[in-house]
Design brief:
heterodimer; A: about 475 residues; alpha+beta; Peroxisomal Thiolase, Chain A, domain 1; 9-stranded mixed sheet; 5-stranded antiparallel sheet; 22 strands; globular; B: about 400 residues; alpha/beta; 14 helices; 11 strands; about 20% strand
């Protein structure tokens, strides 16, 4: 039996803020000296760590029977709920079986690597998903605003069809506070980067990697891919210090994406898998109050195994955005005036939600046992005018079905944090009509017949009660 | 097989307030304004009214729930008053209640009142409201223009019409109603517009611009109904009889079944077929002398011409541009300006349409009077194309029995 990673997935939000746009907007306070290149991925207003993780996990399980998955670890330092199972929401959105184990992993930038080690070394009677996601809030004008990214990655840990065999891990814990965020704070407080590099990255990571290589009986020169979620300067210095070849360093994605917090280690592992050859030795590093290092060897199954979007596909799906104020608004750094329609009370009746949680979170519709009609929402009586049988509907998961736009509008009157609110009727392949909101679509982009898929997103925010609710939205399938 | 209520109910008095931004008037004031006209028209004592139906949609945002607002505003003699609500078909629903009461013999004289006080809500368009504890959790946060704009994109696709061509026909719909409203002293929007203005207006919900949308107005309208025999004893030489009053609500097909393509309203043809049958009409396009339809948006009126069987499928844009539904066309539509310009105080609209047909049939429409019309149709569409209530009422001139 070989343990390891059987599949991986990634998700980066579509919009990539040009750092130059930030520099330009802030030139008035920087004497025009600000240098900024590249882009940072940032989440739409309706995305959070849960929805980002669902996208990545979905990608990792493309072509996999999700009913076979036995658990989900959700790693993030930006989980939307401090006391409500975030992994539980994601697991239901992924339509995992009700007996799947769910666990939130949080509290450190090592949350994802720690969760991955736990999955790789824990019980594995069925494959387990490890998803990591961050939606990182930053203050306007901060260095973090330019450096951070929102994004997610996921690994399917299994004992069969493994594309990267797990060789082992090593860890340390050291309370070095390179940055921190208190429970009450929305954003990080960062310390001096030169100190962090010297006393942190370059002092704490090498011993752990060295220990790991010794455990695996491998030399630094054998490392074909070093996935190191540290700033580029630190990563290069680390490779040099370890004696790992410079070309083994996996692109840190600093330039096109930014740093996606604890998810970054898994993103880089995904990137390593996308460039690895069978037999290659892969080292993944996690850093945060100590270090984790994991070793994998790519197997023969890696070749041609990749079915999803992956890191490469996620990178390619980005669109450059120069709208700094939109970024500030979406990320919560700037409160906009949305007018009276935004005052609507979005209180969720939790008892009504619980009655329909399969519909809302798993996107479960009904299939009539009598006539076969698939419908959303499911109801006591079949919607097919030629049937209307009562009590005949069985659950059918609609989330993976492709759709086609039947009608749409771009509504500039309705409230949306990303105007216009775009919605319409979508025909689902295999039957059924869904009156759906669209997301990640630009005004003028849709047409009747446009191909869409459904994505798990925040439906409404409820600022009065500091919560929000989720549902599925249609989003264009772009080729 | 029930025979329906054709010719069993006579309208003997109607009133309609001036519609518009009635900042100076409360819902009660508006009801009294409409009622004063109706009771004078009927020529009866207020105490002859034996039952009332009050239609109001946004009750929490204007007059509160129950039938009390009508009973109290009019100081009715403690007769039963029922509040009804069926989205934008509310006014017609109120008339249906009153007409059925008379047709059943339960009462001799009944009152139907529709009112809406929208301009106290603070919203430019219709106010936000909850759609249900489950529905709010999955349905898009749509507005009425956005929900009806769906018809335009789907209609264009189904009939292979370019959006630009469709918008030109839609612009004609709006311009026609504006021209008609100039002659209507009670209308909200009394100014002519040009197709160029319509097409250049700011977009509200693609492809609808602001001039594709109806007015959001305060107003009230009411009808007093009785039997034709009693109408005769009151000395009414000719009266307006209800020929048909039909309602068809959605049952979920549009929202959840693949069979509906979104390019038309599913319920209107059903309500219309029933109404034509009840009224004994086989060729509505020829039999009807005027129609008042639910033109909440220009595209709605366009699509309804086909759904009511007045234009052949796919032919409405051409018929509209040919002037078929202009006031001097073969079948005038919205001679009073319609929802578009008379205004749309939701609960009152069905009764406002009835008021116009009643006035036209009795030859009292003043400057906008058509030449001796004898049969008219009023249509409401409550809700949105995905989920709605269609009502079709037909009124005709009748002689005493």
């Amino acid at each position: 039996m070989t343990r390891g990673v059987a599949a991986w997935g990634a998700y980066l939000p579509r919009r990539r803020l040009a750092r130059a746009a930030v520099a330009e907007a802030l030139a008035w306070r920087t004497q025009g000296s600000s240098r900024a290149s590249g882009e940072r991925a940032y989440a739409n207003w309706d995305e959070d760590a849960i929805t980002l993780a669902v996208e990545a996990a979905w990608d990792a399980t493309a072509g996999v029977d999700r009913a076979r998955i036995g658990g989900l670890h959700l790693a993030s330092t930006t989980l939307p709920f401090a006391d409500r199972s975030n992994a539980g929401v994601a697991a239901e959105a992924l339509a995992l079986t009700a007996d799947a184990r769910t666990q939130d992993a949080t509290g450190s930038q090592r949350a994802a690597t720690a969760a991955l080690i736990a999955a790789l070394e824990g019980p594995l009677s069925r494959p387990v998903l490890v998803a990591a996601a961050e939606r990182r809030r930053t203050r306007a004008g901060s260095a973090e605003e330019l450096a951070y990214a929102d994004g997610a990655a996921a690994m399917l840990v299994a004992e069969q069809d493994v594309v990267a065999e797990y060789l082992g891990s090593a860890s340390s814990h050291v309370d070095l506070v390179d940055h921190y965020r208190a429970r009450e704070a929305a954003t990080d407080y960062a310390l001096e980067e030169r100190w962090v590099r010297t006393a942190g990255h370059l002092a704490l990571v090498p011993p752990v990697v060295t220990t790991l290589l010794q455990r695996c009986g491998a030399s630094p020169a054998e490392v074909a891919h070093l996935a190191c979620p540290l700033p580029l300067a630190s990563s290069r210095a680390l490779a040099r210090a370890l004696g790992v070849a410079p070309h083994a360093l996996v692109d840190t994605l600093e330039e096109p994406v930014g740093h996606a917090g604890c998810a970054h280690a898994l993103l880089l592992l995904g990137a390593a898998l996308e460039r690895a050859q069978p037999g290659d030795l892969i080292i993944v590093v996690g850093f945060g109050q100590g270090a984790d290092a994991l070793a994998f060897r790519a197997t023969a199954a890696l070749e041609g195994s990749h079915r999803g979007r992956g890191v490469g596909g996620s990178l390619a799906a980005g669109v450059t955005d120069h709208a700094y104020v939109r970024f500030l608004s979406h990320s919560g750094a700037l409160e906009m005036d949305w007018g009276m329609r935004a005052e609507r009370d979005n209180r969720t009746s939790q008892s009504a939600f619980y009655r329909r949680h399969r519909d809302l979170t798993a996107f479960a519709g009904g299939r009539c046992r009598s006539c076969g009609t698939v419908q959303f929402p499911r109801a006591g009586a079949c919607v097919n005018p030629a049937c209307r049988a009562i009590g005949t509907q069985e659950e059918v998961i609609l989330s993976g079905l492709p759709g086609r736009v039947k009608s749409y509008t771009e509504d500039w009157l309705a409230f949306s944090p990303a105007p216009p609110l775009i919605y319409g009727n979508v025909a689902l392949e295999g039957g059924g009509n869904v009156f759906a909101e669209f997301t990640d679509v630009d005004a003028g982009e849709l047409a009747i017949g446009s191909a869409v898929r459904f994505a798990f997103r925040i439906k409404d925010r409820d600022p009065l009660r500091t919560t929000h609710r989720y549902f599925w939205k249609a989003t264009p399938v772009r080729h | 097989m029930a025979s329906g209520i054709r010719d069993k109910v006579a309208i003997i008095g109607m009133g309609c307030s001036r519609f518009g931004e009635r900042w100076e008037s409360s819902a009660e004031d508006l009801m009294l304004e409409a009622f004063a006209e109706a009771i004078a028209d009927a020529g009866i004592e207020r105490d002859r009214i034996e039952a009332g139906w009050l239609g109001v949609f946004y009750q929490e945002q204007s007059v509160s729930k129950s039938g009390l607002p009508l009973s109290m505003a009019l100081r009715l003699p403690n007769v039963p008053v029922t509040r009804v609500e069926n989205l934008c078909a509310t006014g017609t629903e109120a008339l249906r209640g009153a007409a059925y009461a008379v047709a059943s013999g339960a009462v001799d004289v009944a009152l139907a009142m529709g009112v809406e006080k929208l301009k106290d809500t603070g919203f430019g368009g219709l106010p936000e409201r909850t759609k249900g504890t489950f529905e709010d959790q999955w349905q898009p946060g749509f507005t009425p223009p956005g929900a009806f704009a769906q018809l335009a994109t789907a209609y264009a696709a189904r009939h292979g019409v370019g959006i630009a061509d469709l918008r030109r026909a839609m612009a004609h719909v709006s311009c026609k109603s504006h021209a008609n409203a100039v002659k209507n002293p009670k209308a909200h929007l009394r100014f002519p517009i040009t197709p160029e203005q319509v097409l250049a207006a700011p977009t509200i919900a693609f492809p609808l611009g602001v001039l594709d949308c109806c007015g959001v107005s305060d107003g009230a309208a009411c009808a007093i109904v009785t039997t034709p025999a009693i109408a005769a004893t009151l000395g009414k030489r000719d009266h307006v009889a209800i020929k048909a009053l039909q309602l068809a609500p959605s049952n979920g097909v549009e929202m959840g079944h693949e069979s509906w393509d979104g390019s038309h309203t599913l319920t209107t043809p059903i309500a219309a077929a029933r109404a034509y049958r009840e009224a004994g009409i086989t060729r509505p396009g020829e039999a009807l002398d005027l129609v008042e339809v639910h033109d909440c948006f220009s595209i709605t009126e366009l699509v309804l011409m086909e759904d009511l069987g007045l234009s052949e499928p796919g032919r409405a844009p051409a018929d509209i541009l040919d002037g078929r539904y202009d006031r001097d066309g073969a079948l005038p539509c919205q001679v009073d300006g319609g929802l578009k310009c008379f205004g749309h105080p939701v609960g009152a609209s069905g009764l406002r349409m009835t008021y116009e047909i009643y006035s036209q049939l009795l030859g009292r429409a003043g400057e906008r009077q058509l030449t001796s019309p004898s049969l008219g149709l009023a249509h409401n569409l409550g809700g949105i194309p995905n989920r709605n209530v269609a009502s079709v009422a037909i009124f005709g001139l009748a002689s005493p029995p």
